Amino acid sequence: MPDQVGGMEDQQAECRCIDVQGSPTVTLTHRHTFALKNNMLSGVTLPAWLSFLWRHGGRLDWWPYAPRIGFLTLLSAVNSLLAVPDWVLMRRRVAATHLHPDPVFILGHPRTGTTHLHNLLSRDARFACVDTLAAGFPSAFLTLGPALARLAAPLLDPTRPMDAMALSFQTPAEDEIAVCALTGIHGPPNSVRPGGTSPYMPLVMMRDQALFQPYYQLESASAADTARWLDAFTWFLKKVTLRAGGHKPLLLKSPVHTARVPLLLKLFPRAKFIYIHRDPYTVRGPRVWGWLAAPVHGESAVPRQGPAVARTGTQRRLDPPISHGPPVSGTCAHTPHPNQTPQVFSSAAHMADSYYPYTALQRMTPPDVTRFILDQFSLLHDAYQAAKPLIPPGNLVEVSFAELEADAVGTLRSIYDRLGLAGFDRVEPDVQHYCSTLADFKKNDLE
């Protein structure tokens, strides 16, 4: 069993959910439809981009996205020129770089505190970290560095669109963004897939989201797609390692890694994992959704704690925790208030409206985005629970966002102790300083 800091033990039950007053939905304001910045494909190179347009241009909505497509075409040509120094000067050194066998992976569903935890842990200089420059421009960051950051500054807002957290090219970022740019728009010449060896590609082509689901776990992906992803992933990690001096362990955070524990353990048998979770329900606003849990095939109802996802045919909904007796320590077990809404869903829906339009090349609809959020929640949760026993004892810590928010320093110290990471006393002043910079930060009000 993993060491836990407020960890969850999920008791899952198959059930039917009857929608009484409507299901959680996403509201889209269609802001940023014509925006040209904050796009995760800003670092793509010309050959890959033209290949994407050749194969899949017919699937795109050229109106209203023609300006964005044209801008990305121009930008990809510039990126190809900027990538030359990395390829000519650094490729042999990158190929010769060995990855440290003890990386640390931050796992968790999007909007559960993974970014906050990533920012805190990145204060530790022992780690090689992915920043926004490397993630956004994976083909050129190694050689051009600060000059590239100055050149690309107009492409990035000073705060994140979804939560107003500070954003710069030095901010820690998700490695999957880089892998998406390196592999996400490639495909075999005769592939019927709309491009993509990354589950981030639905942000570009939301209507075709189901075709990208094999790239969460990569178990059902083709051998060619899996090899392409692995090549891009390890190549990028070698570049990040080389930039950090060539010997540091990696600190990596991409929520989709939550579904890849078996694959990550094959690559790094000694990897350490930190799984962060968040109570998905808070009293928030007047909207009321009704759920009625009924036993399946005449079975009696089973108590459920934590964020179960109920399936009814092709429908998926977050099933509120139902209390049967006293709360279970370390879970979300409590009787749901009639005005409770799924906070994680609300936060993800807000992100969909405030960020996804920066990247989209297909029109998004509320049903498509709702399905994407709930399917992703279900997939990540189920894959993690199934793979958790594979992690060696002492290499997994589970932590709640509530604890991290209430006592970041104490929670991090506990994480270090449980994972056997020495030297937190050296890191603590930097962590405290970072926390002090967040004193005036206000979280989104999603009522």
From TrEMBL:
Alphabetized InterPro entries for the sequence: P-loop_NTPase, Stf3_sulfotransferase
Record Pfam families: Sulfotransfer_3
Database matches in SUPFAM superfamilies: P-loop containing nucleoside triphosphate hydrolases
Record-given protein name: Sulfotransferase
Organism: Auxenochlorella protothecoides
Lineage start: Eukaryota, Viridiplantae, Chlorophyta, core chlorophytes, Trebouxiophyceae
